[in-house]
Design brief:
Shape: globular
InterPro entries: FAD-dep_OxRdtase_2_FAD-bd (IPR003953), FAD/NAD-bd_sf (IPR036188), KsdD_DH (IPR014614)
Strand content: 15-25%
Oligomer: single chain
Number of strands: 22
Structural class: alpha+beta
Helix content: 25-40%
Protein name: FAD-binding dehydrogenase
Number of helices: 18
Distance between the termini: 13 Å
GO molecular function, one term: oxidoreductase activity, acting on the CH-CH group of donors
Radius of gyration: 23 Å
Keywords: Flavoprotein, Oxidoreductase
Largest sheet: 8 strands, mixed
Length: 559
């Protein structure tokens, strides 16, 4: 055999599984279609958010959390409805969900700290939900940002793999694309595929697919951890669910091109059951990167509640479709309203004061202060009056940003960004003035203004995230900013069905000997640990939890 275990995919889930295996002295072949510069995969580009429950960071910020509240939120968000017995699609997903929440409330933080991963002191309040106690969303802030962002999360596992390679426990097969899982007498015993031409492109850049040879490797088991479908719009459209309406004609891409979904079909051909393929996680606050790395490179705006969100026709989105509240609910609203289905965009309208405090951008490269663990720069960027340098760069250079001193000028510039002038300046001014009249009191009937007041009751939001309520048309807070928002493809919520040991299951629910799946390939565990909705800060953690399960169960069972 060429190794004890073959890991397909050099991203976070694959490297976590590798770390568990080499800790027990097993030999691992890590196979990936990209070059060595991409070690760490998609996680490297992330903001580094982690979902934790009742953490010291939460308690220091005055947040009262519990496993009971977190499990209530998780179930209300997942809405698992395919629970018809052992062979159903959600049986294992729900078990993974419960196990994950218990881990997030227990061992997870210490496990990460043992790897050297630390968190910033402020806990973010992501995905605030649909307004129901038993519905979707986080009842309290749980989004812990890792020092180093995604690079800080993936770094310890990259280091473990590189050190193990020095000891010859790990061998990397970069530029090796798996095209087939080898099945021998019903067990997966290896991989076959194509050797791709050398390509020295920088991290994330789309690479050559020229084939220069073939290869075959054998092992006792294979772990498939090759990511999801976010970079492949063709597959996204194929499985786009009817409940989300018509897919946009044009989408932008929040992941590198190598997140192509190929291994899902290849794993299915080896006998694995794919479930919940219609569940996916895309954002509607996407903007085109003014300095792109991969094709149609998109960045998500992480906005606090103050900006006014308008549809393509200039009408305010109703609650709970407010900034930072209900991601897929907003996507569903924008794609299923008959009069909006023809348009692929919506708008933020806000003040420069709001942009300075409330706009964050997803991704390690958009947060150099946290990525570089520079506390002085972090304090300067996050507490200063103006926008952070990355946000200001988008305001200055981004194709989706316009600024103006008056609402009439702003709307004219917004109309210049669309094929036809859809916005009426007088109507946009009317709805903004109506919202502005609600600002004068600490109470209001307007849900979007209520969201601001509620957010500022949380210390973390008041200090560093949410501006004091003010009128959008107040010139003291100008100039005005308009942002054209697009659908950004990102995560796969379904995939290979696995048991709690990350063993891939066949159509009858039985484990396939020698085959494991982890990370996004497995719907982050069980083929759908998030159900229909994610609570944010749960994707990196899902990769770690499922990769850890795969590595530990293999390490215990290998002969």
């Amino acid at each position: 055999m060429d190794a004890d275990v073959i890991v397909v995919g050099a991203g976070l889930a694959g490297l976590v599984a590798t770390s568990e295996l080499v800790a027990k002295g097993y030999r691992v072949a890590v196979v990936d279609q990209e070059n060595a510069a991409n070690l760490g995969g998609q996680a490297w580009w992330s903001f580094g958010g982690m979902f934790l429950v009742n953490s010291p960071e939460q308690r220091r910020m005055g947040i009262k959390d519990s496993i009971e509240l977190a499990w209530q939120d998780w179930q209300g968000s997942a809405q698992w409805d395919r629970l018809d017995g052992e062979g159903d699609q959600d049986h294992w997903a729900k078990r993974w969900g419960r196990a994950y929440v218990e881990w997030a409330a227990g061992e997870k933080r210490n496990y990460l700290r043992d790897k050297g991963i630390r968190f910033t002191p402020l806990v973010g309040w992501a995905e605030r939900g649909d307004g129901r106690a038993t519905g979707h969303g986080n009842s309290v802030p749980r989004f812990h940002v890792s020092w180093g962002t995604g690079t800080g999360v993936i770094g310890p596992f990259v280091d473990i793999a590189l050190e193990a390679a020095q000891r010859r426990l790990v061998r990397f097969y970069h530029r090796h694309r798996v095209d087939e899982l080898v099945v021998t007498n019903g067990a997966v015993t290896g991989v076959r595929g194509s050797v791709l031409a050398p390509d020295e492109s920088e991290r994330g850049v789309a690479s050559s697919r020229e084939v220069v040879g073939d290869f075959e490797l054998s092992a006792q088991a294979v772990v498939v951890a090759a990511g999801g479908i976010g970079g492949n719009h063709e597959i996204v459209r194929e499985f786009w669910p009817e409940r989300l309406g018509r897919p946009p004609r044009q989408m932008i891409t929040g992941v590198p091109a190598y997140v192509d979904g190929r291994m899902l079909g290849i794993t299915e051909q080896a006998g694995a059951r794919l479930v919940n393929r219609d569940r996916m996680w895309h954002y509607v606050e996407g903007i085109r990167n003014w300095d792109p790395v991969w094709p149609d490179h998109a960045i998500r705006i992480l906005s606090a509640p103050s900006p006014m969100w308008l549809d393509a026709l200039g009408r305010p989105l109703p609650a709970p479709y407010l900034p930072s509240y209900d991601t897929l609910g907003t996507l569903r609203y924008l794609r299923t309203k008959p009069e909006l289905a023809a348009y692929d965009h919506s708008w933020f309208v806000l003040t420069t004061t709001m942009a300075a405090k409330e706009f964050a951008l997803s991704g390690s490269e958009q947060n150099p202060d946290i990525t570089d663990r520079d506390m002085k720069l972090t304090l300067k960027q996050r507490i200063s009056k103006g926008p952070t340098a990355p946000v200001q760069a988008f305001i200055d250079h981004g194709a989706d940003f316009v600024t103006a001193a008056t609402i009439g000028e702003l709307v004219a510039k917004m109309n210049d960004l669309t094929e036809a002038p859809l916005l009426d300046a007088g109507e946009v001014e009317r709805v903004i003035r109506a919202r502005d009249r609600e600002i004068d009191n600490p109470f209001t009937k307007d849900a979007s203004v209520q969201a601001i007041h509620n957010a500022r009751r949380y210390r973390g939001d008041r200090l560093a995230r949410v501006t004091a309520p003010h009128r959008i048309l107040d010139p003291d807070h100008g100039p005005l900013i308009g942002v054209m928002l697009h659908t950004l493809t990102r995560k796969t919520l379904g995939g290979v069905q696995t048991d709690l040991a990350s063993r891939a299951l066949d159509g009858s629910g039985a484990p396939i000997p020698g085959l494991y799946a982890a990370g996004e390939t497995a719907g982050f565990g069980g083929g759908g640990v998030h159900g229909y909705n994610a609570l944010e800060g749960t994707f990196l953690g899902g990769c770690i939890f499922s990769g850890r399960a795969a590595g530990r169960s293999l390490a215990a069972d290998l002969g």
